[in-house]
């Protein structure tokens, strides 16, 4: 199918409009990327400049350096009227499980 001269005439008049649309699309993509980058940079700066709330103490934090064997905690419970639990078997500052380390499996 051949292109007639009248078709070429209409196409040539539309070329500048197509060019403007293509350049606007390219600029729009660049502008969108710049906005996303600015937003990301702003969030990063806010995280750096903000003061974060300290995390709550976990269960392991109070056990560090506890040399009195939980005596203070037991005394506090006693004052509060709670029933004192029997402490587990202790040997040399270590808690030992009575079910572990006493049985040897010799099966092959």
Describe this structure in words.
- The chain has 108 residues and is mainly alpha-helical.
- It has a domain at 17-45.
- It contains two helices and two strands.
- The chain has helices at 5-49, 71-80; strands spanning 90-91, 94-95.
- Strands 1-2 form a two-stranded antiparallel ribbon.
- Strand 1 and strand 2 form a beta hairpin.
- The longest helix has 45 residues, at 5-49.
- The radius of gyration is 38 Å and the shape is elongated.
- The termini are far apart.
- The model has no long low-confidence stretch (mean pLDDT 76).
Task: Jot down its keywords.
108 residues, mainly alpha, two-stranded antiparallel ribbon, 4% strand, elongated
Strand residue content: under 5%
The count of strands amounts to 2
Estimated structural class: mainly alpha
Q: Which descriptor suits the 3D outline?
A: elongated
Give the radius of gyration.
Answer: 38 Å
Largest sheet: 2 strands, antiparallel
- Through-space gap between termini: 85 Å
Mean pLDDT: 76
Residue runs with pLDDT of under 50 for 5 or more positions: none
Name the helicity range: 40-55%
What does the secondary structure layout of this molecule look like, with pairings?
Elements: H1 5-49, H2 71-80, E1 90-91, E2 94-95
Antiparallel strand pairs: 1-2
Structure, briefly:
With 108 residues, this protein is mostly helical. The protein is built from two helices and two strands; from the N terminus they run ααββ.
């Amino acid at each position: 199918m051949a292109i007639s001269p009248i078709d070429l005439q209409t196409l040539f008049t539309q070329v500048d409009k197509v060019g403007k649309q293509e350049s606007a699309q390219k600029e729009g993509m660049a502008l969108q990327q710049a906005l996303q980058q600015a937003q990301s940079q702003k969030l990063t700066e806010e995280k750096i400049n903000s003061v974060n709330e300290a995390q709550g103490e976990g269960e392991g934090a109070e056990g560090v350096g506890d040399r009195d064997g939980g005596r203070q905690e037991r005394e506090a419970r006693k004052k509060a009227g709670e029933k004192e639990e029997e402490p587990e078997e202790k040997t040399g500052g270590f808690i030992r499980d009575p079910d572990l380390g006493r049985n040897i499996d010799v099966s092959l």
